[in-house]
Amino acid sequence: MILFKMNDKQYLISAAAVEEVVDTVQITKVPLAPVWVKGLINFRGTVLTVISLAELVGLPQSQTNRNIMIMRKDDEQRGLLIDEVIEVLDVAPDEIQLGEEQATPYFTGVVTLEDQQTIADVIDVTDKIFS
């Protein structure tokens, strides 16, 4: 799983759907797009839609988006705008604890990290961004 930061909080997302992580580049806005669609980028000659992960899952918009996670499902790609990637972790399925009250359907659980003091929410937005 990929551990990343948004709004000074840590989150995890499955590395299986992440093709790569790139630095944020200029994003061209798209008129009349949903608020969570930030716009389009030229990614190696391909036009990709960039989505603000924070706004998609109902969190406050971040001011320090430094990375774009390039997500892939079948032959489609989308970019997820995040603050920054911290590291890639091996997380066993039994380490994911189901949360009692999920704020949105995108949060699938929580993981206590190795330092035992940090908790990261597990996010799954693959179906939403590719629908």
Task: Walk me through the structure.
With 131 residues, the protein is mainly beta. It has one domain (1-130): CheA-289, Domain 4 (OB fold (Dihydrolipoamide Acetyltransferase, E2P)), CATH 2.40.50. Helix content is 6%, strand content 46%. The protein contains 2 helices and 10 strands. The strands form 2 sheets. The chain has a 5-stranded mixed beta sheet with strand order 8-1-2-10-9, with no helix packed on it. A 5-stranded mixed beta sheet has the order 3-6-7-5-4. It is globular. The two termini are 22 Å apart.
Please specify the SSE layout and strand pairing.
Blueprint: E1 2-6, E2 9-13, E3 18-23, E4 37-43, E5 46-52, H1 53-56, E6 67-73, E7 76-82, E8 84-88, E9 107-112, E10 119-123, H2 126-129
Parallel strand pairs: 2-10, 5-7
Antiparallel strand pairs: 1-2, 1-8, 3-6, 4-5, 6-7, 9-10
